[in-house]
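lol ok so funny story. i was supposed to be doing the assay writeup but got distracted and ended up predicting the structure for this chain instead. priorities right. anyway since i did it might as well share w the group, maybe its usefull for someone
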Amino acid sequence: MKSLLGQSPELTHILRTLPMIALSDASVLISGETGTGKELIAQTLHQQSRRRDKEMVTINCAALPSEDVELDLFGRCDADGQVTFRGRLLAAEGSTVFLDEVDALPLSVQAKVLRFLEAGECQLQGSHRLHVADVRIVAATSADLPTEVKAGRFRADLYYRLQVVPVDLPPLRERSEDIPLLLKHYLREYAGSNAVVRLSREAEQCLQRYNWPGNVRELENYCQRLALLQPGQLIQPEELTEAMRPGVQVNSPQFSLPPSGIDLAQVELDLIEQALDMAAGNRSKAARLLGISRDTLLYRMQKYNLSP
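and the output, tada:
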């Protein structure tokens, strides 16, 4: 099973809390942009739980059938109350159900899902008897659920019941110090029997400053493409896409040294202070503006006796 990679404080805190969350049966709501690793979090919670012996059931709420959603989720009984079709929630007895894109869950079944969350009970088609299942619910969304609640597209009571334990995954641009680690990992993983693609220092800095709107999934796909098309090559900034190297002038210095020379230490100090001001004190963001890791920034702040 894949695992989330990174050493940033934001991700480290989440990974440190997962074993404690896994021991509980409380419902979990994982929020984060597309490609941040929400399903990996759900899989990790399941693998570290008492339910690990049974396979986790994944339900993509955006792909549920337009008709008979209740049948698909819960099931059906005959006139005698015997279950003739066990829906996916009931079939997950003793396991974990991962409701991906839970914001797409139709309003028509949200009340029944809420009842299932609260008591493990549901009423199947064709029966007045309540059926019970021991299932843990982990949900994920890339939408702003509070906004969906205000707009009337998502039940407030279901939202609060889902987020007993909230897990908010940061986008990759907010943990840029993890980007070199991820690049190295995926370039090696997709190299296979070929030579590993290498990145020049300047190219790596460009990729560390890039926003990665598709987050880790976009980075992984990019590494796979490099490994396939440019095996063993040393990638320079000019070989990156234009979006990945904004403001980079190929074969031209970014800064010009004045004839009188400069005080390099003072320039470094000034740039660090400017970055911290622009980032409103957010050290991860300031490091990203400077094209360095957060740890490097902290080291240089200590070097100049700047308040951490």
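The chain has a mean pLDDT of 88. The longest strand covers residues 136-141.
back to the writeup now i swear
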